[in-house]
Amino acid sequence: MSIHVKNNIHWVGQRDWEVRDFHGTEYKTHKGTSYNSYLIREGKNVLIDTVDHKFSREFVQNLAAEIDLASIDYVVINHAEEDHAGALTELMARIPGTPIYCTHNAIDSITGHHHHPEWNFQPVKTGDSLDIGNGKQLVFIETPMLHWPDSMMTYMTEDAVLFSNDAFGQHYCDEHLFNDEVDQTELMEQCQRYYANILTPFSPLVTAKIKEVLGFNLPVSMVATSHGIVWREDPTQIILKYLEWADHYQEDRITLFYDSMSNNTRMMADAIAQGIHEVDPGVAVKIYNVARHDKNEILTQVFRSKGILVGSSTMNNVMMPKVAGMLEEITGLRFRNKRASAFGSYGWTGGAVDRIQTRLMDAGFDISLSLKAKWRPDGSALALCREHGRQLARQWALHPLEAPRPITTTQAAVTPAPVIAKAPQAAPAAAEWDDDQPMLCTVCQWVYDPALGEPDQLVAPGTPWAQVPDSFLCPGCGIGKEVFEPCAVEACV
Ligand code: FEO
What we know:
This protein is an alpha/beta fold. The protein contains 13 helices and 26 strands.
């Protein structure tokens, strides 16, 4: 089955209503997904991307019903991950010599997955073009780390269609193909979930790449993604959304998540949330038990929040494992411009809260006071939790709040539970950097060590970062200097 997209472009992809897991089991696809492949029939016949490997046979069968496979002149693979290039083995068995246009990095990953180094790969770079007849061309735009090193987009001139691959997509399955035909709330929820869980670490690059593409001044009539819908109506809306989300995004929202052995930490969460709401009724407050809720939804809420509170009971003197897992994810997603604080109840020792606080600090959050409660919080301890919530609400407020109420006699008599505090580590101002300050690529974590330089780019050992030329590209991911930040020496070794 094919769907007409525009002029001589047809969708020849595959819908997947039942998929529930992506990237192993790390991304839950409650709305299914689609694998969008496009067939262009101009002077030349071009296939853009394939589908997930589990649909290989159906895909090739359907494609053969649409076009004589031998008449396909070119295959374009924008990204080598198996949900897009997965049907290549089945397809290329039928058309073995057909040129495959992809990035240089994609050759490595396609060959690594399919083990056919003899395929007719044609590596392309940004700005390269392919004449497809009828006065139209395909122009290639490398998008490394959006979200793999091999990713690229393909722009079709005249029709002004941008085949964007993963970027601007969603894991969303619907019988309708176009954005103006589906439920708008569902659509934007899935777009934001996709961005928050997959693209957040690459936000600096998202901004740089979109500005680069906009700088070409190309008209865009459609954005044809590789997952979910095709943006036909106001296609630039999703591009503008990405720019907004990539720019240290936050809403007036606070998210609390925790795990609780005996309900005590949950009681603390409830009381803290009450205190926040009491002082700032306008702020959205969301609470989740990580053991019982969809992890990707919690991470999306973190993405939307100005601040988070992370709670755990102390178990074996450390935090509960599901909280630790969430903190590992949050560290990898590299959220910025957010505040955080830890809380939790304990019995013999309170190691969990200390560890959470340290992990939050290492993950780049601006840290506020943490809060511990010994055993089950009683009325006094819960009053302290509410007061803690009030303090954080004032501290994290995005707008002026009413003056705090006077402390009541009951609250004043409460014996505070043990409270720990750690000051956030301030990054040194640029002027204070030493010449031997190492620099961290925030996209791929490669570290520039001034002592070593980067001889492959003619940067001699001993060159401080300030003297590294602006043309420098990260050897790890190929991105420029703009995504580098100073990193602590101990974090870089
Ligand atoms: Fe949709 Fe990166 O694969």
